[in-house]
Amino acid sequence: xxxxxxxxxxxxxxxxxxxxxxxxxxxxxxxxxxxxxxxxxxxxxxxxxxxxxxxxxxxxxxxxxxxxxxxxxxxxxxxxxxxxxxxxxxxxxxxxxxxxxxxxxxxxxxxxxxxxxxxxxxxxxxxxxxxxxxxxxxxxxxxxxxx
Length: 147
Hints:
Layout: E1 5-11, H1 16-30, H2 58-65, E2 78-79, E3 87-90, H3 93-100, H4 107-112, E4 125-132, E5 135-144
Parallel strand pairs: 2-3, 3-4
Antiparallel strand pairs: 1-5, 4-5
C-alpha cells in the first residue's frame, strides 16, 4: 500500500517548532489520526471530523498505529533543515520558485499546485510559509504517512 498524504494550514508564528507541536496536540485531541480515523482527506482543518482522542498520549497513539503510522502530523516529531523520517523540513527556496513562481507563495497558490508532494518521501514532511500581501500569514505542513 502507498503512503497517505496529509496537509494542514495553521496561523503563522515565527517558531515553526512551536507551531508543529501545537498542531500535533490539536490533532491528537481531535482524534484526527489513525487508528481512530483510518483515512482523512487533506487539507485537514479544525472543521474536519473530530471524534476525539482514543489514546492516553500522542506516543500511545503512535504505538497503536504501528508500522502504518498515524497518517497524520502526529508522525512528525520535530522540525529540521533536511528531510528525515519523522521530521518536517522547509521546502527549499528554489523549489518554491519552481512550483509557485515566487519565494512567497500565497495559500491559494499552495492549494492550487500540489506537485511539491512528489518530492516528499514516506514518513517525512515539509513546511511552506504562506504569504498574504507580502507578509507571512500561515504555515502549511504537508507530508506522507509511513505506509
